[in-house]
TrEMBL record:
Catalyzes the phosphorylation of the position 2 hydroxy group of 4-diphosphocytidyl-2C-methyl-D-erythritol. Pathway: Isoprenoid biosynthesis; isopentenyl diphosphate biosynthesis via DXP pathway; isopentenyl diphosphate from 1-deoxy-D-xylulose 5-phosphate: step 3/6. Belongs to the GHMP kinase family. IspE subfamily. It comes from Kitasatospora sp. CMC57. The active site is at K9, D136. This is 4-diphosphocytidyl-2-C-methyl-D-erythritol kinase. The lineage of its organism: Bacteria, Bacillati, Actinomycetota, Actinomycetes, Kitasatosporales. Its EC number is 2.7.1.148. ATP binds at P94, V95, A96, G97, G98, M99, A100, G101, G102, S103, A104. Keywords: ATP-binding, Isoprene biosynthesis, Kinase, Nucleotide-binding, Transferase.
Amino acid sequence: MITVRVPAKVNVQLGVGGLRADGFHDLANVFFAVALGDEVTARHGEGVTLTCTGPDAASVPLDDSNLAARAARLLAAHHGIEANVALHIAKAIPVAGGMAGGSADGAAALVACDALWGLDTPAEVLHALAAELGSDVPFALLGGVALGRGRGEILSPLPVAGTFHWVFAVADGGLSTPAVFRECDRLRVEAGTGCTEAEVATPDADPALLAGLAAGDPVAVAGALSNDLQSAAVSLRPALADTLAVGTEAGALAALVSGSGPTTAFLVKDAESAEAVARALRESGTCRAAHATYGPVPGAAVRTG
């Protein structure tokens, strides 16, 4: 039995370029891994089977649409072996919440199956397989803080000092990532800026954000947080504006929608502030749950002890 712990992510910057001919957008995506995470356990089995427990377990598909199952099959096919594994997901990352929970489970399954089957797959091969599974899967392998380019899968680790404290407010229901990107394009056209790659500049990482991360300065990072998908997520789920306001009024240094949402993220100055902001969010009735956590943390790794 192999158990792998894998982190959720928040995008401290999500710069979205114009719509490409292939339907994707070029990104400047600064990923930040946080301690809120899932665990995926792999045991020997017949074929690929999936089970799941946790608050959102009923929303997790247990067929081949699940990235964990697809990861197991992809790894086995790469090595020319049968995919025989029973996978169990202990779910803590919100489902369809903009924190890459499905991608995290795919990364964890790659690591767990590689260890269970004794394959010793080189890290660069695991990364390539992860990129086949989805844009966010490679970062779940890497963890820490990194700049993602292309669709987000081309990663460059970034220097970061110290520990940053976060609160995540979980909304009722999820948001479809493709739907949020479509709404972003629609809003850009409505605003008259256009939405294609010929009309929208290719984004780049914000130097002020990178400097704040390298210095371990939460105030500087708070001043540079940005998400080009936030207006689209709020357009599709207007109640998110209330959640963002509650966390800010409760003392967060900054607030933003996490990725494509609908989870909202609040950067705070310390662990005590995190608990206070989480409590205010829970009591406000504007979210289903609120979790205080921290980061950055490593990527998917076998749990020891």
